[in-house]
Amino acid sequence: MASDLSKAISSTAYSTYEKRLLKEVLSRPVPHHVAIIMDGNRRYASEFGMVISQGHEKGREKLEQILEWCMEIGVKMLTVYAFSTENVNREKAEVDDLMRMFAENFRRLSEDDRVHKHKIRVRVLGQKEMLPKDVQQAIAAAEEKTKGYDQYFFNLAVAYGGREEIVQAIRKIAEEVKKGKLSVDAITEKTFTGYLYTKDMPDPDLILRTSGEERISNFLLWQLAYSELYFSDVYWPGFRKIDFLRAVRAYQLRKRRYGT
Predict the structure, then answer these.
(1) What's residue 65's pLDDT?
(2) Is the distance from CB of 77 to CB of 33 less than 8 angstroms?
(3) What is the pTM of this model?
(4) Residues carrying an active site annotation
(5) pLDDT of the residue at 4
(6) Average pLDDT, the chain
(7) What structural domains and CATH numbers belong to the chain?
């Protein structure tokens, strides 16, 4: 009985604090574009006695929640780091599980009523050709069915590497110069940006990473030049709404400076 009472009090306190945080966040301008390095699925699984695939499944469920939270406060664009080019080198069983989940999740996205109701455009950033055919097909279906939407934008970095993105852009520019379609003097920051996966997207206002690690891990290296960075100690599957709201509030309380 005492334990139940304690849980009830704790739940009430949490709910009250969450509502107060939400009201505070909504009283200030919110970031237009939030990017997230979703880290900690495997450690979360280990800590709670789960197999790795269960940790990734919990991470998928959390991603659905974060998308809802973004829409609730008015964040228009969410970009998440789902699978890096380095992740390909993990154990085959884990990679196979992830690929199965990606195929299922992209098929689910293409048919999700919430996606179509809120007109969420889904896009994948990365080397799609590295992915299995069924994953490529599921991605193509989600992108095709949402390509005309413009209310919210949901970008997933899959088979993505920031350095590789930059190298690919350099190759494309070099080819254009070689063919005489682009002069060297015409290459500017704006020109270069036009050759990236994110060429028609605004740079992230806020980049947050979970799990306590404080590094960028090859994510949006060109785009983060003036982004605000926020690091949370919580593993991704355990990331709560109050953790998200705290990150946004921290962004709101900072005075953004460009070039210094």
Answers:
(1) 97
(2) yes
(3) 0.93
(4) 39, 87
(5) 65
(6) 94
(7) 31-161+204-251 (3.40.1180.10)
Q: Cβ(33)–Cβ(76) under 8 Å?
A: yes
**Torsion angle, CA of 136/142/148/151, rounded to 10 degrees?**
-130
Q: Would you state the torsion angle of the CA atoms of residues 41, 46, 51, 54, taken in this order, to the nearest 10 degrees?
A: -30
Beta-bridged to residue 231, according to DSSP, are: 209
C-alpha span between 159 and 180 (Å, rounded): 32
Instruction: Determine the residue type at 21.
Output: L
* Beta carbons of 248 and 73 less than 8 angstroms apart: yes
Q: Which two tokens stand for residue 171?
A: 């190759």
Cα(53)–Cα(38) distance, integer angstroms = 15
pLDDT at residue 1 above 60?
no
Q: What is the pLDDT of residues 54-86, one digit of tens each?
A: 999 999 999 999 999 999 999 999 999 999 999
Residue with token string 């990150």: 247
Calculate ∠ Cα 217-202-32, nearest 5°.
Answer: 95
Nearest to 213 by CA among 32, 66, 81: 81
Read off the pLDDT of residues 169-178 as tens digits, 9 standing for 90 and up: 999 999 999 9
